[in-house]
What we know:
By secondary structure, the protein is of the alpha/beta class.
Amino acid sequence: xxxxxxxxxxxxxxxxxxxxxxxxxxxxxxxxxxxxxxxxxxxxxxxxxxxxxxxxxxxxxxxxxxxxxxxxxxxxxxxxxxxxxxxxxxxxxxxxxxxxxxxxxxxxxxxxxxxxxxxxxxxxxxxxxxxxxxxxxxxxxxxxxxxxxxxxxxxxxxxxxxxxxxxxxxxxxxxxxxxxxxxxxxxxxxxxxxxxxxxxxxxxxxxxxxxxxxxxxxxxxxxxxxxxxxxxxxxxxxxxxxxxxxxxxxxxxxxxxxxxxxxxxxxxxxxxxxxxxxxxxxxxxxxxxxxxxxxxxxxxxxxxxxxxxxxxxxxxxxxxxxxxxxxxxxxxxxxxxxxxxxxxxxxxxxxxxxxxxxxx
Length: 360
């Protein structure tokens, strides 16, 4: 199964177990990497570096010339509609599959297999050994990455307690709900305290409560300066968690940068409500257009309703509208200049595919 595909036979030397709590900053993992693979990042400071990566399946181009660099300690989102190429990109990073062309560097090495013990991976296809107890699943995968058995068991119980599964530690995984099982699997993927954590659609199938727990796990990793990459097509998770995002559609990179930079790609929108005529502000240099806002049925409400949507030009300040209304005697009942959401960015940059993804 993909969950265990990166375990292999690690090169490590057992060192004394630490007395520090698993969640303490000084605790690492009970192994020493081969010195040849101990580089933390590439020359440009990136934990992960993709250069012109392309993947063909026959004549179908699944990933098309993608380049990106991810700095250490970041929460980085791979965003895009279903079928955009997110999982294929992740599998190439982990060397589960090889790119058709291009180069990938992971933790300073040309192959993820050389640093597999420093990587934690949650695949899109979820699965657990049904007869094994929850704690033993976590401990088992920690030992595959070099953690001693006694330490692995201690970490397993500690993590289950921290994330609300203490009472289910001795239960076989087949007795757990889907959300509980998914939490066990994510804990198993990070029990060896990896430097780089890659989560493929970690929120898929989780109820709102367990989605909050998953977000807590990701934030805990970030507080401990681990680099976290996760894929999703649900923008709300990325907006709450990510510092930087890759937006991919049809296999191509269409945006790579911070959340703030992403929102700047969408012109600001101002919503006003007034009983006065808005003609005096229609020709302002900062305004692209003004139109009546839609009513609850999705139809234009008409000028008599007094609610207007104002599309600003690129880099225009919405305060210019407010100042102009005051100067021209337009009395406002409301003025809303909320910034665009990441969903707005997604819809604008991805296009028709974004609407399809929103219904999946």
